[in-house]
Design a protein that fits this description.
Structural class: mainly alpha
Number of strands: 0
Helix content: over 70%
Shape: globular
Number of helices: 13
Length: 283
């Protein structure tokens, strides 16, 4: 029994769901009524935006990279979609196509810089970033696609391989350039779609709508058990990571913790989890 428990606790994706359950219990104790179905439905809707944006971040981190252009891609897409739609539902399809094209352009720029120009992902994507009620269903569909893509397809196996050892992957016949290009392309398109969906949720656009999404998507991915160095993890854990980040932010707001305090608490939790996962990896 002890060995079985130890085996389960060594799985970071199981650990993150245990943390999620404990966080929900704590929230209910400190704020009775927190688990009210209506409130939890709102939490899942908010988590959906982060969860969708985190799909692309998950892919880039699995290859050992990182995408810091997500925040500004979301903001840019949000503004473009709002300008095209102007409150007209009939313009929804043209707006969606426009933000997808924008996401493809951003992804190609990122992929070119990271793979061909050998610019570190941190610098490249940060530089590029600088220069609904039905949202949960959309997230669920995209989540299934992401999980199947990572664990049931040759592309997923190649992606993990590149994250573990890019040089060895190249010698084994994997087109590492194509894999690298693809993850940044997917990440940018997903971020653009997230910006589009935020227009439907908020009914408007503003220039800092995506500001916090760089750190939040990275945090969701890392909390979910994906190694920041790449090659280990998956989107199943990231789902819990996105919900944990949303609940944490919501609960700290309810108990009147100021923004600076919320950032400190979130930072401490992220650091502790990264240390725990790093220790597991060494074992």
């Amino acid at each position: 029994m002890k060995k079985l428990c130890s085996k389960y606790l060594e799985n970071s994706q199981i650990v993150v769901y245990l943390i999620l359950i404990l966080l929900l219990v704590l929230a209910q104790i400190l704020s009775p009524g927190y688990l009210n179905p209506t409130h939890m439905a709102g939490i899942l809707r908010l988590a959906s935006f982060m969860g969708i944006a985190a799909i692309g971040q998950n892919l880039t981190i699995l290859t050992g990279g990182i995408d810091l252009s997500i925040a500004n891609t979301i903001t840019f897409a949000n503004v473009i979609a709002a300008q095209i739609m102007m409150g007209r539902d009939s313009s929804m399809l043209p707006a969606l196509l426009a933000v997808i094209v924008m996401g493809i352009v951003v992804g190609l720029i990122n992929g070119t810089g990271v793979y061909w120009l050998k610019i570190p992902p941190f610098i490249m994507t940060l530089g590029v970033g600088t220069v609904i009620q039905g949202i949960f269903l959309i997230w669920a569909v995209l989540a299934v696609i992401a999980i199947v893509l990572l664990h049931k397809t040759p592309y997923g196996r190649k992606l993990y391989s590149v994250g573990i050892n890019e040089e060895a992957s190249r010698f084994s016949g994997i087109n590492t350039g194509r894999v690298t290009f693809s993850v940044y392309l997917i990440s940018a398109v997903i971020a653009a779609v997230s910006g589009f969906l935020l227009v439907g949720y908020t009914g408007t656009s503003f220039l800092d709508v995506g500001t916090s999404y760089n750190t939040k998507t990275i945090a969701a991915v890392v909390i979910g058990g994906t190694a920041i160095t790449g090659g280990k993890g998956g989107y199943l854990g990231t789902i819990a990571g996105a919900v944990i980040m949303t609940i944490l932010d919501d609960f700290l707001t309810i108990v009147s913790i100021p923004d600076a305090g919320r950032q400190v608490v979130q930072g401490i939790i992220i650091i502790l989890l990264v240390l725990v996962y790093s220790r597991e990896k060494k074992k």
